[in-house]
Amino acid sequence: MNEKRKRPKGQLFALVASAVIALLLGYFLGNYFEYGSPDKPPKLDSATLLPQAADLPDFELMDQNGQVFNNQNLQGKWHFLFFGYTHCPDVCPTTLLRLTEVYNRTAAEHDLQANTDVIFVSVDPGRDTPQHLKKYVEYFAKYFIGLTGKKEQIDKLSKALGIAYSIHPPEAEDEPDNYLVDHSAAILLINPQGQFQAVFLGEQDPQKIADDFIKIAKFVE
Amino acid sequence: MKLLSAFFYVCLTLLTLQPVLAADSATLQVENAWVREGPPGMPMMGGFMSVTNNSTGDVSITRISSPAFKSIELHETIMQDGMAKMREVSELRIPAGQTVVLEPGGKHMMLFNPVKPLKAGDTVTFQLSGSDDQRVEFSASVKRR
To answer: How many separate domains does chain A show?
Structure first.
């Protein structure tokens, strides 16, 4: 009798134990494939993560309040960086509005959201004065920073980040302020150490950008 | 008497033309027109819409004007090697029976120098001229999006 009773108990235990192990394994494997192991980079939909975060060259620009903005100002916060110009009616507002959406969709990660800013770097310092940039960036959100400055300082930063741009000659001689600027449409991610961490290229969906940003931040921190 | 017969002929001409004018007015159809609200004081804004050509022949948009802007051009954003380039579209042709969509990141109206500041919720009227001499009036709402 005793023998008979023990057997089912042992079998039941084995069954429960293997079920628990299978569940745990499934959970960890699932997490592994979803977020990657602590050492393995996360799987990303919209971003390209740099194998190693790259230091930026020393640069000095001016923010929308006329204050100096350099590498030190990048410390301690995540920054989305976008290069453009304020006389751009399509790509720049589209991208900047998208970045406000990205920011809103990180709301569940309170600390991360509180430590995230968006920087719009003008590649058109001829027209984009700090006063002009102030009206422009503050329209989008209060956590937006607008940067402008000397061309060689802008170039220092843009070249290090692989950003290309070209300013066209004015369309008419009597309208010297009416010209177009071609510029890279990439969104760059700078980590709280002030290093180039990742690039988003061509992604339209703010949710995908936000999801990838959260994955990158968790992986790096 | 001469004046009377002249008047008669003018009336006759207008009557003959009337069905043609009426048919033409329905050829180009503008839908979902909107203007993107911009930061204050910016000298240019973007406008978007879809234009359908209901006729059996191709029609080009030759001109767009609005009392709310100093001038309007048609532009197109082209993505090339990761670069965003904006180019003026000299002729926007709408093939017979088809719809051309002007949307962010693609073709758009470049609206220069708003006469007065425009805010989300405002309505702006436009007039579009086609290569077949028709004119279409349409209105667009200003939106933040």
So the answer is: 2
On whether both A34 and A77 belong to a single domain, the answer is no
Are residues A5 and A63 both part of a single domain?
no
Phi first, then psi, for residue A126 (nearest 5°) are: -60, -35
Cα–Cα separations (whole angstroms), residue A121 to A81, A132, A185: 7, 13, 12
pLDDT digits (tens, 9 = 90+) for A48-99: 999 999 999 999 999 999 999 999 999 999 999 999 999 988 999 999 999 9
- What part of B 17-36 touches A (C-beta under 8 Å)? 36
The residue ranking higher by pLDDT, A214 or A12, is: A214
Residue A184 to residue B83, Cβ atoms within 8 A: yes
As assigned by CATH, the class of the B26-143 domain is mainly beta
Residue numbers in B near A202 (CB within 8 A): 79, 82
Residue A43 is which amino acid? Answer: K
Q: What is the pLDDT of residues A194-211, one digit of tens each?
A: 999 999 998 889 999 999
Categorize the per-residue pLDDT at B23 as very low, low, confident or very high, splitting at 50, 70 and 90.
very low
Q: What is the DSSP letter of A169?
A: P
pLDDT of residue A40: 85
Smallest CA–CA separation between A186 and chain B, in Å?
7
Cα dihedral A61→A67→A68→A72 (10° resolution): -110
Establish if B40 touches chain A: CB-CB under 8 angstroms. yes
Q: Whole-angstrom Cα distance, residue A10 to residue A2?
A: 12
Contact B108 A164 (CB under 8 A): no
What residues contact B103, with CB distance under 8 A and at least 6 apart? Answer: B48
* Residues of chain A with C-beta less than 8 angstroms from the C-beta of B108: 89-90
Q: Are residues A73 and A181 in the same domain?
A: yes
Contact A54, A196 (CB under 8 A): yes
What are the chain A neighbours of B103 within 8 Å (beta carbons)? none
Q: How confident is the model at residue B10 (pLDDT cuts 50, 70, 90)?
A: low
Structural domain of residue A7, as residue ranges?
Answer: 1-40
